[in-house]
Design a protein that fits this description.
Elements lengths: L6 E8 L5 H11 L5 H13 L6 H13 L9 E4 L4 E5 L4 H10 L6 E7 L6 H12 L5 E6 L8 H17 L6 E4 L23 H6 L12 E10 L2 E7 L4 E3 L3 E5 L3 E9 L8 E3 L3 E6 L10 E3 L5 E12 L5 E2 L4 E5 L2 E15 L4 E7 L1 E2 L4 E14 L10 E6 L2 E7 L2
Parallel strand pairs: 1-3, 1-4, 4-5, 5-6
Antiparallel strand pairs: 2-3, 7-8, 7-14, 8-13, 9-12, 10-11, 10-14, 11-13, 15-21, 15-23, 16-20, 17-18, 17-22, 18-19, 18-21, 22-23
Helix pairs in contact: 1-3
């Protein structure tokens, strides 16, 4: 993908009434990224009422769609700053959001946590914060919205800021910024506000622009072996590059054995004389010399991966039949498949009711989240989810069907 095509995926979470949709509307409006048909519709309504295009109409227009049961397709809500494009990842409930993040149909790289300055931290806020902590999101910006409802009070802002910082730190969430804003009036979203002269921090857009993209192409090589074929007596290994790149003639490591091998040549479909292959490409590779290689081994550029038979992870249990500690499971991460069992359930949690069900549990219920220790029958190769997503994301199968998705932090 070219530089201009890549959008930084962000997720906006917060209590249902704390102004999430107003903020989305405001971001689209202030960055001139409203869909053209929406803009015309709003312009028409404004002209009929003889006033300039008003932000309130944007919201009415979006709200009206919502009330008819049509949500703006936020999976494709883009806005852009002078620095880059952003895409807002949304999911209707915590369950779907968690499932998407963990199974990989969407991966937020940064989060905006929105809190009503008048109402403060609510249960739903706690639930969202817990999930951000569980996913190990490192780039988080907290927005204290509706600052207008507390008369742009500096004291109220600092009091809430202290409370929120303290609360989030317990969940291992360390916000990069905590900003006072009013999404409805546009204070400090795209432009600094004269109504909060006491605040000299960034606007929402400036804060977002400091966040970094996960440049998976710049990470060290990770090439899980999918299969090996003998063609004309020569052994060809095939797989998809999950991070970095590989060059002809390069020395790489074969894990988990940590054996150094040399890439003799690279083969791509319908291409000749390939010298380099990049991330997301499916390729064939020949190694110099004779090596025993099988599905599930990983070719890497370095030895920074973790090689282990015990993994601490966070999982989201999807199977309607829950889990009991003696059940045998199959761990699947990229092309690795190894029998395992959950040795310890440090704690389990129901994201729907925000109940910390119990610590040191012996079972996990359907749609619960758990912090666990897995013991595998043999060693696997993994990386942290936030470094190389595909190497830190796994599925647990039970009786041949996917029962849980998990991530390794």
């Amino acid at each position: 993908m070219g530089e201009e095509e890549r959008a930084l995926p962000i997720v906006i979470v917060g209590h249902v009434d704390h102004g999430k949709s107003t903020l989305i509307g405001r971001l689209l409006y202030d960055t001139n990224c409203l869909p053209a048909d929406k803009y015309l519709e709003i312009q028409k309504s404004s002209e009929m009422l003889g006033r300039i295009v008003e932000f309130a109409f944007v919201m009415d227009c979006l709200e009206e769609e919502r009330s008819r049961g049509i949500t703006i397709d936020t999976t494709q809500t883009f806005f852009k700053t002078s620095k880059r494009r952003y895409v807002i990842i949304d999911a209707p409930g915590h369950k779907e959001f968690l499932k998407n993040m963990i199974t990989g149909s969407s991966q937020a790289e940064a989060a905006l946590l929105i809190i009503d300055s008048f109402e403060g931290i609510r249960d739903q806020t706690k639930r969202h914060a817990y999930i951000l902590g569980m996913l190990g999101l490192k780039q988080v910006c907290v927005l204290l919205n509706k600052i207008d409802l507390v008369n742009y009070s500096q004291d109220k802002f600092f009091e809430l800021k202290a409370e929120i910082t303290d609360f989030l730190n317990q969940l291992n969430v360390h916000p990069n910024f905590i900003l006072p804003i009013s999404a409805i009036h546009g204070d400090n979203v795209a432009t600094p506000s004269k109504k909060i002269p006491w605040f000299d921090g960034p606007t929402v857009l400036q804060a977002l622009d400091t966040f970094e993209e996960l440049k998976i192409e710049e990470k060290p090589l990770r090439l899980p072996i999918q299969d090996s074929y003998a063609i004309d007596g020569k052994k060809i290994l095939v797989g998809r590059i999950e991070a970095g790149h590989v060059r002809k003639g390069e020395s790489v490591y074969l894990l988990p054995e940590q054996k150094k091998v040399e890439v003799k040549n690279i083969q791509k479909f319908l291409e000749n004389d390939v010298t380099i292959a990049n991330v997301e490409e499916s390729i064939g590779i020949r190694l110099k010399g004779r090596h025993r290689v099988k599905r599930g081994q990983i070719l890497t550029a370095d030895l920074s991966s973790t090689i282990t038979d015990r993994i601490k992870a966070n999982i989201f249990w999807m199977d309607p039949m829950g889990y009991r500690t003696e059940d045998t499971l199959l761990f699947r991460c990229v092309t690795q498949e190894v029998p395992c069992r959950i040795e310890k359930i440090y704690r389990r949690f129901d994201p729907a009711s925000m109940e910390f069900t119990e610590e040191n549990a012996s079972s996990i219920g359907s749609a619960e989240v758990a912090d666990i220790l897995i013991r595998l029958d043999e060693k696997v190769v993994v990386d942290p989810f936030n470094e190389i997503p595909e190497m830190g994301r796994f599925v647990l199968e039970k009786d041949g069907r996917p029962a849980a998705g998990g991530i390794i932090l």
